[in-house]
Amino acid sequence: MASGIAKGEYNVTVAYRYRDEIFKIFEHLVSMADMLKVREHGLKTLHKNLKTVHEATLKMTLLPNKDAAKKFAREACEANTPEMTQPNASISESSRSFLKAMDTSLSICCQNIDLRGEAASKARMEQELEVATAIQHNLLVKPEAIPEIDMSFWYQSADQIGGDWYGVFHDKEHHRSYFYIGDVTGHGAPSALMTGVICGAIVSSEFSTNEDEPVARMNRVLNMLTAVVMQTGKGKIGATMLLACVDVRNKMIHFVGAGHPFPIFISNGTAKNIAVKGSILGAEVNPSYTSQSFPFQAGDAFVMFTDGLVENMGPNERALSSKQLQRILQENHNGKAETLTKCLESEATKCWADEPHADDATVMAVVMLG
């Protein structure tokens, strides 16, 4: 009888002999009806869960991160069917296949969310770097022409944004021009930020002081900058700097250094280093600096550079030395500042070849015209 009902044969004739048999058959039918209701409820619940999981899969790509996606998927995939909550419940092979496929699908969704987040973060970072690069380039623009002086610059950043800076301040009242070059320790975003702070401090000061004597004026600027670096970097970052003042009226040049590579002075066909030592910016509360002064006649020149020029290495750890720089400048000096920067750029390019730069490199050349 039961098998017939299961097959859909509802017109079943049952032979019985006793009243008790009728009650037993009735009890079996009621039990079967209850089981069918349970199964129907379970199927409806499973269908609802599958629909929820399907909607969850579609919505996964809109979730903000992987953790949120996992939480959503876990809540959506909780099985509430009666057969799954029973202690001895088993999972059919078709259910296992479905769950495995769903797990794979959710994993792919999580990966897509991660990739999309990484892509968005990368795009945002690239945009910020472009803005930072533009700002830094504006800080390193070539200044306007100065009477009786020829100047040229070359800048090579190790990263998209660097930690070197340079600039010129022309004091028209006293016929003096101040040239400065500097290097924040390291390179990349932290160095670039400190570079911006230093450049901003220099521009805002514009070497403004009532002190007329060039060396005292440059010392005052360095003291101001070391205070700025100490306050901003909190002892975790420093900077070197070199300043030069060309006094056109008196035909003199003055150098003041703050832990920076020595400049190369070219006069009468000879190139030599000028030793100007000093405290690194931000390293000491009471810094000290040394200065050097020389006659600066027509045809004389000087070159200032950052340490990346002599520390960046090419294949087989080849690097330019200070002696090589002196020789190159001495052999190529023809009274034009651009010639000096171009020859150093050419030699550096040959030396470094295709090796990545470990540090930024900057060169400033200045020639006294006749």
Short description:
Helices cover 48% and strands 18% of the residues. The chain is α+β, with helices and mostly antiparallel strands.
Describe the overall structure.
This protein has helices at about 1-5, 20-60, 65-75, 80-85, 95-140, 190-205, 215-235, 310, 320-330, 335-350; strands at about 150-155, 165-170, 175-185, 240-245, 250-260, 265, 270-275, 290-295, 300-305, 360-370. Helix content is about 50%, strand content about 20%. The protein is elongated and about 115 Å long. Strand 2 (about 165-170) and strand 3 form a beta hairpin. The protein has about 375 residues and is of the alpha+beta class. The strands form two sheets. A five-stranded antiparallel sheet has the order 1-10-9-6-7, with helices on one face. The chain has a five-stranded antiparallel sheet with strand order 2-3-4-5-8. Helix 3 (about 65-75) packs antiparallel against helix 5, helix 6 (about 190-205) crosses helix 7 (about 215-235) and helix 9 packs across helix 10 (about 335-350). The protein is built from ten helices and ten strands. The chain has two domains: about 1-115, no CATH class; about 150-370, 4-Layer Sandwich (Phosphatase 2c, domain 1). The longest helix is centred in the first third of the chain and has 47 residues, at about 95-140.
